[in-house]
């Protein structure tokens, strides 16, 4: 009788342990699945003028604070597997993808202090991911090529030195197209959307307003010169309708103030925003930065996250 009681107790203990382990595995399975299903973000940021955000320039103070302190409130950098970064400072006739294990910095600015040519940013590249991106673009009918040699320009390293100074997340730099065709850039973003499901963020680095002549001659007007165009950007980027966003950005040249914000044939800084919006998926974007540089030029940043 004692043996039977002991066996019965053992069976109950084994059953309880088994059910506990089973429950833990089920919970682990579903929480892990949920983690996999959370999209990495698509983010557009303004990178400012040359290395000025890194040099402590007073007129870039608001932008520097945003890149250094505010982006991390919207993006958990340490959860990202990699960052695909579209830079305004690389124009090619077909989409070009950085594919080296490591890329030196390309100091594509002139006339700044000597220390601004000594920066280091040693984040790794990812040749395997670069090849995967190329195959995905080929499948989407988008011509592309790999480039293992070109360095990371300041559209990459200036914002990233502030956003993630640890430089421990792999980066793939991608060019914009020299034709500045908005529909092609939006389609590029749509093709890149799938990578967000793999924990890979899509970053666009440009400027929501970029008129070099006005930067030189129209600062400190104490009035915002591009309010109407910035309002348009906010309306389309935060729209609940993905189709409204797409149509609005494809026809952006027809909007009031567009040519003042980005002069004809000089809209390379606007193209990364269109790519990121294309990668936004069905969720509406959110404006997470709205600041007047020199009290005159309104800059906006947008993010698209999981619904």
TrEMBL record:
Instruction: Give the matching InterPro entries.
Output: Extradiol_dOase_DODA (IPR014436), Xdiol_dOase_suB (IPR004183)
Q: Which GO terms describe its molecular function?
A: ferrous iron binding; oxidoreductase activity, acting on single donors with incorporation of molecular oxygen, incorporation of two atoms of oxygen; zinc ion binding
Cofactor section: Zn(2+)
Q: Does the keyword Zinc apply?
A: yes
Q: Where are the transmembrane segments?
A: 6-27
Q: Give UniProt keywords alphabetically.
A: Membrane, Metal-binding, Oxidoreductase, Transmembrane, Transmembrane helix, Zinc
Give residue ranges for domain Extradiol ring-cleavage dioxygenase class III enzyme subunit B: 69-302
Q: Does the keyword DNA damage apply?
A: no
The signal peptide annotation in the UniProt record is none
Instruction: Family membership, please give it.
Output: Belongs to the DODA-type extradiol aromatic ring-opening dioxygenase family.
* PANTHER family given in the database record: 4,5-DOPA DIOXYGENASE EXTRADIOL-LIKE PROTEIN (PTHR30096:SF0)
What is this protein identified as? Extradiol ring-cleavage dioxygenase class III enzyme subunit B domain-containing protein
**Source lineage:** Eukaryota, Metazoa, Ecdysozoa, Arthropoda, Hexapoda
């Amino acid at each position: 009788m004692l043996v039977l009681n002991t066996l019965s107790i053992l069976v109950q203990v084994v059953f309880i342990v088994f059910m506990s382990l089973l429950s833990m595995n089920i919970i682990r399975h579903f929480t892990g699945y949920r983690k996999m299903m959370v999209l990495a973000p698509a983010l557009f940021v303004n990178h400012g003028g040359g290395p000025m955000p890194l040099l402590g320039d007073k007129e870039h103070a608001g932008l520097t604070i945003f890149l250094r302190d505010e982006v991390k409130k919207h993006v958990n950098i340490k959860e990202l597997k990699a960052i695909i970064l579209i830079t305004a400072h690389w124009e090619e006739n077909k989409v070009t993808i950085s594919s080296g294990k490591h890329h030196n910095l390309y100091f594509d600015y002139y006339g700044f202090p000597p220390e601004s040519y000594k920066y280091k940013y040693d984040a790794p590249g990812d040749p395997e991911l670069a090849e995967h991106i190329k195959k995905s673009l080929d499948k989407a009918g988008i011509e592309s090529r790999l480039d293992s040699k070109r360095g990371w320009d300041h559209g990459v390293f200036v914002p990233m030195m502030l956003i993630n100074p640890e430089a421990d997340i792999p980066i793939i730099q991608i060019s914009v197209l020299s034709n500045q065709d908005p529909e092609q850039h939006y389609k590029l973003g749509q093709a890149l959307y799938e990578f967000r499901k793999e924990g890979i963020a899509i970053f666009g680095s440009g400027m929501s307003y970029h008129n070099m002549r006005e930067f030189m001659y129209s600062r400190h007007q104490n009035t915002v010169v591009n309010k109407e165009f910035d309002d348009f950007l906010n309306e389309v980027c935060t729209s609940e309708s993905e189709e409204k966003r797409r149509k609005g950005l494809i026809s952006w040249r027809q909007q009031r103030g567009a040519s003042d914000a980005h002069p004809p044939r000089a809209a390379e800084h606007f193209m990364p925003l269109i790519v990121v919006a294309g990668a936004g998926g069905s969720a509406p974007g959110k404006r997470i930065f709205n600041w007047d540089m020199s009290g005159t030029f309104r800059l906006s940043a947008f993010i698209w996250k999981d619904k």
